[in-house]
User: Fold these one by one.
Assistant:
Number 1:
Amino acid sequence: MRITFSIVALIVVATGFYFFQANDTSAKLDQRWATYSESNQLEVDHSEWQLILDDYLVTDTDSGVNLFDYSGLLDDGREPLDEYVNTMVSVDPLTLNQQEQKAYWINLYNALTVQLILNHFPTASITELGSNPLEFGPWNEVAASVNGIELSLNDIEHRIIRPLYDDYRIHFAVNCASIGCPNLAAEVFTSDTLDEQLDQAASEYLDHPRGIRIDGDELHLSSLFDWYADDFGKDQKTVLATLSRHTTVADVEAIKGFTGTPVYAYDWGLNGYCSIDNECGQQTDQ
């Protein structure tokens, strides 16, 4: 009995360790991507991605959440998106200057996320995707190959973007195809306007109830600020001070002065817009 128990305990510990490792989202720079060329003034052309956003991103929703028309894009033909991704992965980001490189990775991440949903559409949530039952969602699965290196969405976000640029505003720019996520931006990110765009993305999210909401004595926050608290500050006071930079004046003092325990929540429902009957993210009867 003791031997059996020890074996079971070992399996449980090993499984738990594997789950932690598989779902590790700490920022750890992959040194293969630590190079940039500040003298290079080349601008990457994201016009194809802009045309897709213009045609299939719905920004005038009653909820204030940008929704993507996955069914409409599939119905019209997904070739423009696939062509854009193919063009992007043929670019060597290491030859770009840092700001151009930063915009490149954000746009590529968002386009790959849309591509991932299309590959499995219809689905009610991105969390339903992924082939490994020990992993949460599909973020560790290969999404693209750049410079001959296979990359997952987690690689791009946690091994490149976050540690390389050390900018908490990144969290307001990369989109996870979910209602709870900051909006998929209507404009492609470009090096010339990147800082302004990141500030705008932060303000849009933090001025929406899914980012921050004060209800009496309760402070409701997106789970993003729990999962990635270290990116926003060394402790809760610093995190709240950081968030207060991007929200309305009416809320600033209440947020900065909050000393209780925030209520965290996140909606993993698909950020899908239904332009075609019976294709709203759920499987239909045949």
Note: DSSP finds eleven helices and seven strands in the chain.
Number 2:
Amino acid sequence: MVRLLRPTVAVAVLAGLVAAPWVVDDYTSALLARTLALGLVAVGVALLTGVAGLPTLGQTAPYAAGAYAGALVGGHLCDVGAVQVLVAGAAGAALATATLPLVLPARGVVLLMITLAVGELAVVLAGRWTSVTGGTDGLAGIAPTRPLWGLPVLTTDRARYLYTLVVVAVLVGLVLLVLRTRVGLLLRAGRDDEARLRASGHRVAAHVAGVHVAAGAIAGAAGSLLATAQQYVSPADFGFDTSALLLLGVVVGGTASVGGALVGAVLVVAARDWLFGALPGQAPLVLGLAFVVVAHLLPTARRARPPARPRPASAPLGPRPADARRPTSATGVRA
């Protein structure tokens, strides 16, 4: 039942996202576009935490780098969305590369704390680098974006939402395709038994570095989408509460599921925004309680699942040898 529930919810949410701009008002469309950008960051979190076994709270750092890079490129160099996404992805990947000396030797809780510190440092830097980021006031009045050369500028919230949805769908599809190749198998093998993977001759450090940089590029591209969707970027978009929401969304959607992480993040952010209106001042408390409940219930649900029936050790995997099919006599001697 649990296995059927998650794909059903995912399909329902995705169908709703496609139909949303023709059903909701402009404000809600803009809100959903920002939520989708955050959901793309959650895909990178799932890639690191669930697929590669590298828990992280620091994906807001490349997210911020991509947002500011995309906003600056859009305001001074090029208004084409494809260029902004590529530049923002490169900025996120560059920041992730710069933090590799800290990430490569760490695992577990130590890695979680290191990535959290990196994310908080990025927020502090964004608030103090006034000449580039606008400081705590942020960058306002970001120029409208056109998706590709020759296409019209995105002037409405519906158009910006649809652009964000298409870019997110393309990037998530690329991640899923890559994970179906040998790369995905190696990442999961390193998550399950890193020492064994290293003993078999694979370069585990190279795999960790590659997935860390790739997740940074995904977060950077999401930052560009955020700048396009809300036409404003500030350090408040990348604080610890954002990191906590991302991790909660990934846990709800399934740490090893890229699509589930996207859907989980969308649901959690939508719930947060609804709670802010329904329970003014109490939304962080409710979300914190939800995090505690989810963290306790999911392991219990996994333990409650019936274990898969193992293949008997004596069961042959191929045709039985000819002598094994010979009849035996009453004394046990083969004929």
Note: Confidence is low (pLDDT under 50) at residues 300-335.
Number 3:
Amino acid sequence: MRAWMLAAGVAILATQGLVAARLIAPEQPDTAIPWLAILIGGVLFGYGMALAGGCLNRALVRLGAGSFKSLVILVVAGLAAAVVQRFAGAAIPTTLSDTPPVVALVLAVLCGGGLAALALADSWFRQGWRDVLGSILIGLAIAATWLTTTWLTDPTPVNFAQSAGDVFSFAAPRGLGRTLGLALLAGVPLGAFLAAAATRNLAWESFTARDEAVRNVIGGILMGAGGTLAWGCTFGQGLSGFAMLGVTAPVAVLGMFLGCLWGIRAFEAGGVWPGLKLATAQLLKR
């Protein structure tokens, strides 16, 4: 969680710095924002994360290190995303807020700096230099993607949910967004393979039981469908969206948090509805 917070903080500061330098121009979508669908999609995605043991990006990383389980998760997630795109429309690029430059810069310093400071406040996290360096590089990569795609006249976020759906959707538009998505789906496993090989962490991983396979398949389906409804995944909304101060990002991420909490508590309580009761009781108690 601290790694994600540091990556988000760096992404916000770097991206909004580019906005202040007028190298990136925020835009507004030309469609109404389906707030309820984004929240529900976030919940589905978060619950799927709990079932599958991580988000789509983590599945890509594990695939590069030798995980057959992750390949299955990505395939079913892509199929589910493609189906939802066909009936509900493709995931729209992250909504960007129409905020005055001075206000946006202040928000960037407060939010981005606050997240980074909160993440680095823990001495145990700071000692793991690989986590710190990796988080910083991810945040900078988000900003670099916004800059590069803006330069190519089609601002496009890093969005693994949409990218996975585009692979299995013949109706997906052929443009920079699809090209970027295919590059991400190939590049992340390749980078993970190189890192795992360099650290001798390559290992074949497969399912050990039928229940595990079913759980991961359901998790992949929920992430694919939910990520499309939410207009993005933990990267599409959680990092790329926050980096641009997207107005839908907090709603989607809130849904993902609630869905993930629900999924974790479902494991503890032994069922979906008992897990919902346990998660609700915990939230009300706090």
Note: Residues 2-23+30-266 form one domain.
